[in-house]
Amino acid sequence: MCPNSSRFLWLLKILVIILGLGVAGFTFGSMFLPAAFSSLKLALPSPAPDVQKLKLLPEEHLRNLFSYDGIWLFPKNQCKCEANKEQGSYNFQDAYGQSDLPAVKVRRQAEFEHFQRREGLPRPLPLLAQPNLPFGYPVHGVEVMPLHTVPIPGLQFEGPDAPIYKVTLTASLGTLNTLADVPDSVVQGRGQKQLTISTSDRKLLKFILQHVTYTSTGYQHQKVDVVSLESRSSVAKFPVTIRHPVIPKLYDPGPERKLRNLVTIATKTFLRPHKLMIMLRSIREYYPDLTVIVADDSKKPLEIKDNHVEYYTMPFGKGWFAGRNLAISQVTTKYVLWVDDDFLFNKETKIEVLVDVLEKTELDVVGGSVLGNVFQFKLLLEQSENGACLHKRTGFFQPLDGFPNCVVTSGVVNFFLAHTERLQRVGFDPRLQRVAHSEFFIDGLGTLLVGSCPEVIIGHQSRSPVVDSELAALEKTYSTYRSNTLAQVQFKLALHYFKNHLQCAT
Amino acid sequence: MCPNSSRFLWLLKILVIILGLGVAGFTFGSMFLPAAFSSLKLALPSPAPDVQKLKLLPEEHLRNLFSYDGIWLFPKNQCKCEANKEQGSYNFQDAYGQSDLPAVKVRRQAEFEHFQRREGLPRPLPLLAQPNLPFGYPVHGVEVMPLHTVPIPGLQFEGPDAPIYKVTLTASLGTLNTLADVPDSVVQGRGQKQLTISTSDRKLLKFILQHVTYTSTGYQHQKVDVVSLESRSSVAKFPVTIRHPVIPKLYDPGPERKLRNLVTIATKTFLRPHKLMIMLRSIREYYPDLTVIVADDSKKPLEIKDNHVEYYTMPFGKGWFAGRNLAISQVTTKYVLWVDDDFLFNKETKIEVLVDVLEKTELDVVGGSVLGNVFQFKLLLEQSENGACLHKRTGFFQPLDGFPNCVVTSGVVNFFLAHTERLQRVGFDPRLQRVAHSEFFIDGLGTLLVGSCPEVIIGHQSRSPVVDSELAALEKTYSTYRSNTLAQVQFKLALHYFKNHLQCAT
S-S: A186 plus which of A182, A273, B96, B211, CB 3.0-4.6 Å? Predict the structure, then answer.
């Protein structure tokens, strides 16, 4: 028998083996021969390759690799809040009585599920592409508005030649079609959830695939449809995001871009009119015509003679955050500057500098400093089933691009400039009646990008007691409200547990 | 020469041709032979296949395919607002004087770009996968929180066997690593933006790829990193979304789930105390203990003797939406019911029914009917460079799942229940001082999912003039404010043009 013949049989044998093994998918031109040899290796007995032992790095090592500020930010079943020498830890459910807790947990879970349903959470598991699929397709970024139609870019079929090509696309939240003008014998299911293309003409197939469209058929704000692309045993899946854009809410700074058309000052006062008046006077020294919004929940309404002050009265003692929320609800400029009623403007209180930072960065909020106190803190969240663990650390994450003297962080002092529209989106929770600060930045997690620029400084009025007896009486009453009672602290812990779905904090 | 040998040479020749043609990428096992034959067809002269002419459907046909309510919702360079017999059309830039317009356009464009930058818009073009890539990878859904680390699922290499496998991963906003415990000679660039794996051991390669991790290195709220996966000439790219979850703001309905712990009623009044009082009395007939928040910008503050009414006074004539925004800023329950001060509760005003709808659906807002008037309208947006085109149509999109008597739409009458937190996110623009309604629903586009349930009905007080001379005087003053002056209309058109970045409407 001639050698060639035997070699030929040997080659065919390899091919049969390969087919038998069903080793699917290699790029052809580049690697037919190696593939054949590899299959040979599989087919015929050969020395096992010196496989090295497969093991993972020890957990200790991983902790070092993936920790930030000593917190291991790596997916785990359960997060923990371990106290250490720097800070203690709170277990928020302790705010409830043991007897109430089971019922509270049930309510909290129900409310959390309603929230998740409306936010489209939890998100579906990642979509995995298999190797060597004969399709070209858009892995990411195809987006359509509700009830609109979009072309699906990048669809290709590069499978083997065949007498007939059959490619099927399937959607679930919308319908499919093609702009190609071809008979129904070639394209079936136009305007339906399943579109099937059958043709012997490869060029035609390519043309039809290049012009496939997706049409959203229901009015939905944000959903992800998974479209599948099939031919024979190969299946590719890709996402089509149905999304209604959020309509802009822009503010016109006016032809001269005056500061008064860009910034409004907002404050809340309670039982200390003298401090408010001193603050207002200090504003007028530097900013004669900026609008100032004052929310007051004192007993007696004040008489404020200033055309640029808007004064609002509230039910007595309605509270700190209720007043702050009222004040920001009335702002009609792009930015709002928050100040406490006992602050004092001085020549270093440069609002323009804070405006410049917000105009040139993606920050939503930028804080200054109160007599050198910047009160910067970072909030790090770890998610887990029974609620997230929150870690608060002083300091900042990183310098702010373009502003070497500013930083990116999570929370700042009570003197900050904010995008009005973003600030209103988070708001100040009126349930927080008394001392509250970091609560606002926690509510802003994921919504407000916060920065801090210590170079912009505001003063603070002296804390020495007043002489005037009437004012002294007011300050006395004030202090009784100002102090954080145990009940109020409990209430705040309970809010973090229920409202923010937090488990604990360090 | 023996036939086999010649057949073998012929087969080898084909292979050479195939390799020569560099026809890349077919799934192997399933189709080696057909591929060979097809390549043969390419190699040897053969009759051209009868290709049918490649053409697209005529535009007229496409318009019919992809229109909704007569609006062609298909990507185009420029959208239009054509008036027809049903409705006229507004060109919003007409609200500005010709001389001002050029400067206005410049300001509007600058503000729009700032908005887009902060929202991460416009989104990058779709990421297209090439056919027959030898990789398995996650096409969609890999998400990491800022500064956290996640494993990247589904990474595989199914390329041809080779003496050495070299696979390189590259990120841009974060760093890569692998949990596999392997020497630096095998994995280079741990904890850097580029990770390179080189090994002769296929099993080891698989193991390392199964344990690759992505670490976010900067604090960002929402960005998409594109990670590439390369080996020889093959490149796959997939998105990793860096996202900080928005922290929940849940409300505790309390152990007995009383309506007063779920719903607050909010209203705004101006110069018609008698109507307000009648409305409040009608509320108490049916809901004795629900909290009612009243915002008043009249001249004289009212005396309201009702422990469950919270009364807020504003600067005189501050305006309609300012008052509405103030009222909702004070709500501390999960839901808020909006009513006008001249409505009248009756036995068909069943708040519980509206609560049930919001509890069981994904709606943010659900309207009822005012004496049978549901005022349902749909808003359809078409985006284009110079601003979007807005089409307002009466009616609704679709029935509401689970509530056959309710529908999904874009806008409803001034009697609706809303998720407080969502409503505050959109707010009522205090710049709208007088008659305004659909403006709110336009601001809510993309944020508020709106429904309508006509079965829940509220009454309206009679419009017949009052007898009491003082009240009559008030009503007279009131009507002067109530009427929509030409200037106010102009102002609203200008707001749509600048604030909402709209171009025109039908």
Answer: A182
